[in-house]
């Protein structure tokens, strides 16, 4: 970057003291920072036809004042001013809030220009921008920035103008000419002018198009570069598993693998053989059979003389995995161990010794696996189940336990492709997109909350038939405490209703993890028939006898989460039911309920969820991993994303990219971003 662009903003006229501080708060220190600060939207000041403008939309009109403004004072600094305005042949009302000082400036007969929200019913504009006279100036679009401190839009635009004048010709062009030509993208300076001082609608659009592409290309280049470097480093272990033993093991399974399971097993085995470190995400809808795939991968590394580890987010899930894998692998002579928070000190000590000596082939457990004193003799493969529940840091610690074990992350949250290639862009992805044959589709019904009693009656029928049920409690955004209160209320209500007839259990996030496991165990062993729970139950548990689920306030949940919750039933061969108790107010809420009723396909729901709620909410409040883009929007710009990804792939694979002058900027960017540093082995 040239020195000029790195000049401090305080070199501009009018910036110092308070203003400089406000800019700093916005993360702006240099002229480059300033010009790269993008508005959150552009205000449209083009004249519009009121007949064609929908209710509540912003509009700019020019008209003649037809009545003297009348002002109503509404108390402290509050006022409402109103007059009639003739716009073409239409007489409408112009309403001004808290701008009574304009009264003396506006007189009957004058022509003025106003902008504001159009109230179609009242035929009135609630004015936010006023200028005397007809619309003369040629500003059609004004950028609106999120500002801090003492800044206002007008002042900020003045600084922006100066900055662009100053450094417009010194800005570095990241996009090679041929790319700009193919996609007809504006050069950086013109694009920045289009963002900050657009000539017209098309200028705004073209400017945006350029920066969306640039942003996505840079990001994808980074992801692809990380992948390439990891593969070239060959710092992993090549695992020479015994294919015949593997085939025999698959032959002993109680069912045939689905085509999708076979495909991902092959993808995983190929990675195991390669000398690079596997870094793979395995996605498969709830119930698609990921556990057995994990077992096959783990068995493969064991046949090559390595150890394997499987980490689950809860104790109960770890126990369930241990039981399944024991069925499949113990007959083959595999020595397995379970390590959780409740493993007793003495047993733990012995286990750790055996693990370090290589007397244990396969370790299954919870976070207890990543404590510092857990050492393997020769760890070859680490698998984490329901990976979105683990933090990035925990994943790293586990990975670093072996020299360079291969790593497989499994998740039951179907991730739309656009998000997968961004949030997990540096990983390889395998997808199980097929369900084992013979599953009955879960029947989902959306009912009004007032039908709660009927729902309970229906539930009783299932319970009387020896089945079990989940009742998921009302969700209160942002307040775990209230969620718990709700769960307790529902629990008490149901306990009263069922008397001694059925046993009700209670599960929520405030319980100690040993208490949670106890409740879960009682439920999975059938001592408890009805489990009242907050969303903590959403992850992985397998109680095939549970066939009925009620979800309170279903409209408050996102689709991905509803689908995860629903996945707790329908795990056996019996027909299962999911009842959504919901009175959604918004169209979007209704649409979500309809989607749940219509499909059991997690990927379809995930795409819908992304479309309805946007990428920020997709992984829930606490999850991130999805980068924040300044311009690009993963819902609407998915085509650009796909193009950028393909271009990035081609670039990274081509010799020219690494040598040509045209792409020097991009290479410098990659170097500075650390993408070329490769895996660190600490
Ligand atoms: P998830 O992908 O949600 O972790 P699981 O691994 O728990 O799913 O599998 C769900 C159920 O499907 C288990 O009872 C499992 O034994 C069964 N299953 C897995 N693969 C197959 C298959 N190919 N054919 C029939 N049943 C299968
Ligand atoms: Mg699972």
| Percent helix | 25-40%
Bound molecules: adenosine-5'-diphosphate, magnesium ion
Uncertain runs: 620-624
Q: Could you say which structural class the secondary elements and strand pairing correspond to?
A: alpha/beta
Number of strands: 21
Query: What percent of residues are in strands?
Result: 15-25%
Quaternary form? single chain
Largest sheet, spatial ordering of strands: 11-12-10-13-14-9-15
Which radius of gyration do the C-alpha atoms yield? Answer: 31 Å
Report the biggest beta sheet as strand number plus sense, adding barrel if it closes: 7 strands, parallel
- Shape summary: globular
Distance between the termini: 33 Å
Number of helices: 22
- Arithmetic mean of pLDDT: 87
């Amino acid at each position: 970057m040239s020195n000029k662009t790195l000049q401090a903003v305080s070199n501009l006229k009018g910036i110092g003291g308070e203003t400089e501080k406000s800019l700093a708060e916005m993360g702006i220190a240099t002229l480059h920072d300033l010009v790269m600060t993008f508005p959150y939207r552009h205000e449209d000041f083009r004249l519009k036809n009121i007949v064609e403008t929908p209710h509540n939309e912003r509009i700019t009109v020019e008209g003649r004042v037809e009545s003297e403004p009348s002002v109503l004072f509404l108390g402290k600094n509050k006022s409402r001013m109103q007059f009639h305005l003739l716009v073409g042949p239409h007489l409408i009302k112009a309403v001004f809030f808290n701008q009574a000082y304009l009264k003396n400036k506006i007189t009957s007969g004058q022509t003025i220009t106003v902008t504001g929200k159009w109230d179609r019913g009242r035929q009135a504009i609630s004015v936010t921008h006023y200028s005397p006279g007809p619309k003369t100036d040629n500003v059609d679009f004004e950028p609106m920035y999120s500002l801090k401190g003492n800044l206002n839009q007008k002042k900020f635009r003045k600084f922006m103008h100066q900055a662009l004048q100053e450094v417009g010709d010194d800005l570095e062009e990241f996009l090679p000419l041929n790319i700009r030509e193919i996609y007809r993208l504006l050069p950086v300076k013109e694009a920045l002018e289009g963002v900050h001082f657009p000539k017209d609608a098309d200028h705004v659009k073209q400017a945006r198009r350029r920066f969306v592409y640039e942003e996505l290309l840079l990001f994808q280049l980074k992801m692809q570069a990380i992948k390439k470097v990891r593969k070239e480093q060959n710092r992993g272990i090549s695992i020479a598993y015994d294919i015949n033993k593997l085939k025999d093991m698959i032959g002993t399974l109680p069912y045939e693998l689905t085509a999708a399971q076979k495909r991902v097993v092959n993808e995983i085995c190929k990675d195991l053989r390669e000398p690079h470190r596997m870094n793979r995400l395995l996605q498969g809808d709830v119930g698609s059979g990921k556990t057995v795939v994990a077992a096959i991968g783990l068995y493969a590394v064991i046949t090559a003389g390595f150890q394997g580890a499987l980490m689950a987010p809860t104790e109960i899930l770890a126990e369930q995995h241990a039981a399944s894998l024991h069925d499949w692998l113990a007959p083959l002579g595999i020595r397995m161990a379970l390590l959780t928070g409740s493993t007793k000190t003495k047993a733990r000590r012995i286990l750790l010794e055996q693990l370090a000596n290589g007397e244990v082939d396969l370790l299954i457990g919870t976070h207890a696996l990543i404590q510092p004193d857990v050492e393997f003799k020769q760890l070859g493969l680490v698998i984490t189940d329901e990976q979105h529940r683990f933090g990035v840091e925990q994943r790293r610690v586990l990975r670093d336990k072996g020299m360079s074990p291969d790593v497989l992350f499994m998740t039951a949250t179907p991730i739309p492709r656009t998000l997968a290639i961004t949030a997990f862009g540096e990983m390889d992805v395998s997808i199980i997109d097929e369900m084992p044959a013979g599953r009955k589709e879960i029947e989902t019904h959306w009912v009004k909350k007032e039908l709660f009693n009927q729902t309970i009656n229906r539930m009783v029928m299932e319970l009387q038939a020896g089945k079990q049920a989940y009742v998921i409690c009302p969700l209160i955004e942002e307040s775990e405490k209230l969620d718990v209160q709700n769960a307790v209320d529902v629990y008490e209500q149901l306990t009263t209703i069922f008397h001694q007839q059925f046993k009700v259990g209670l599960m929520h996030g405030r319980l100690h993890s040993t208490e949670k496991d106890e409740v879960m165990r009682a439920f999975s062993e059938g001592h408890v028939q009805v489990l009242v729970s907050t969303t903590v139950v959403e992850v992985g548990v397998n109680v095939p006898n549970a066939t009925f689920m009620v979800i309170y306030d279903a409209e408050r949940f996102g689709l991905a989460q509803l689908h995860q919750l629903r996945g707790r039933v329908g795990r056996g061969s019996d027909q299962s039911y999911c009842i959504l108790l919901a009175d959604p107010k918004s169209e979007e809420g209704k649409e979500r309920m309809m989607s749940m009723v219509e499909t059991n396909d997690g990927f379809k729901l995930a795409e819908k969820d992304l479309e309805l709620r946007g990428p920020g909410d997709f992984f829930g409040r606490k999850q991130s991993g999805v980068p924040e883009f300044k311009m690009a929007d993963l819902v609407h710009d998915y085509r650009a994303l796909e193009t950028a990804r393909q271009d990035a792939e081609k670039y990274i694979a081509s010799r020219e990219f690494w040598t040509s002058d045209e792409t020097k900027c991009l290479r410098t960017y990659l170097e500075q971003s650390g993408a070329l540093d490769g895996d660190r082995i600490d």
